[in-house]
UniProtKB/TrEMBL annotation:
The protein's name: UDP-N-acetylmuramoylalanine--D-glutamate ligase
Cross-referenced Gene3D superfamilies: Mur ligase, C-terminal domain, Mur-like, catalytic domain, NAD(P)-binding Rossmann-like Domain
Gene: murD
Domain Mur ligase central: residue ranges: 106-284
Family from the record: Belongs to the MurCDEF family.
Positions with a binding annotation for ATP: 108-114
Catalytic activity: UDP-N-acetyl-alpha-D-muramoyl-L-alanine + D-glutamate + ATP = UDP-N-acetyl-alpha-D-muramoyl-L-alanyl-D-glutamate + ADP + phosphate + H(+)
Record-level GO BP terms: cell division; cell wall organization; peptidoglycan biosynthetic process; regulation of cell shape
Organism: Soonwooa buanensis
Main localization of the protein described in the UniProt heading: cytoplasm
Amino acid sequence: MKVVILGGGESGVGAAFLAKKKGFDVFLSDMGEIRDNYKNELKDLGVDFEEGQHTEERILSADWVIKSPGIPKKADIVFKIKNQGIRLSSEIEFASEFTDAKIVAITGSNGKTTTTSLIYHILKEDGFNVGLGGNIGKSFAKQVAEESFDYYVLEVSSFQLDDIQTFRPYISLLLNLSKDHLDQYNYDYEEYALAKFRITENQDQQNFFIYNKDDEMSQKILEKLDLKVNKVPFSMSEKLDYGAYATDSNIFVNVEEQHFEMKIEELSLMGKHNVANSLAASIAGKLLNISNESIRNSLMTFQAVEHRLENVAEVHGVRYINDSKATNVNATYFALESMKQPTIWIVGGKDKGNDYTEIEELVKKKVKAIVCLGVDNQKIIDFFKNDKEQIYDTSSMEDAVKICSQLAEEGDTVLLSPCCASFDLFNGYEDRGNKFKAEVLKLIK
């Protein structure tokens, strides 16, 4: 079988590793530049590859094309592959066909990484033989090739779900929906939501689908779809006889005749949105028959994910918080909602069709100054100029942090929560967050 892999990053190289192990004829093509470490891996594997171009003749002769999630679904080469009737899959689809492990798959607009990491922590702490992958950590395909895990906990994006055919998790989670990546879904919120719901389309009565009962779009889509899966809701606002819910002081889980409760003050994660994430993770734990004591201990000991409301330092009485992973408006909503001190807010980057109306009242209430960071900040400036007198336009992290440090007074918080993708000035949200932390630490010296 001829397998062609599009994209030479972690996902693509992992897929090449698995394809080679299965004895397929493998070719990898990347329109950009492949990093040296990945090139060396491909050479060691004996995989033929190209960079800086897509040779259509070779790609369109494939029996199976594996597409990395970073390649837009509207790319010309993707259209031609589909037009030829060649099977097109994501790495998670490809890898799932070569493992019998039970998969817990998590998607949603916000909280995916935190909840995926939390569920992995719960399973790992209870002694499960479990791998972590998808949009986080080591390639799922590479782990399937090299390891023999009984379980995988996978963070899954809508871009990965766009390219599935048979992917069927044992437990799927859809945490929430908000208007994200609409530029890839014809600026149609429902089209994007349906892409997320593909996580459950192949599930049956042997499987579980955990969903957010408070999420309006999720409820709307659920009414339209005829799902065969066991549906398990969670809610922050409604007491549920089956599923999980929270009061002001406690979380409660009731599933499959199993019960669990815990005081919210005992959770290691702070913020209302993280109570919801903890509810979803606790349901998954109980569905996998993990003891209450083990779940409680894991929820108390879990450490927050890097670049997600991460405390960087306190300098001259000012807190600096790195929320670089907030690449959409809804994620920043949660960040601003959890701010207790007057906040200087760093925002901006590659706009994905953002509507800032959702956070306008929070900005009026919580934010004392806005520092824009991006190649083109005009949309943000125009939106907030009537709400805030102090708006600054910057195009480097050094300048942004310097202005924040000049504006900030003792007791203030400087929050990097950009609402936008990072690819105008940075190599990813990690690069953006790391540069923020580096500039903040310079203030201490």
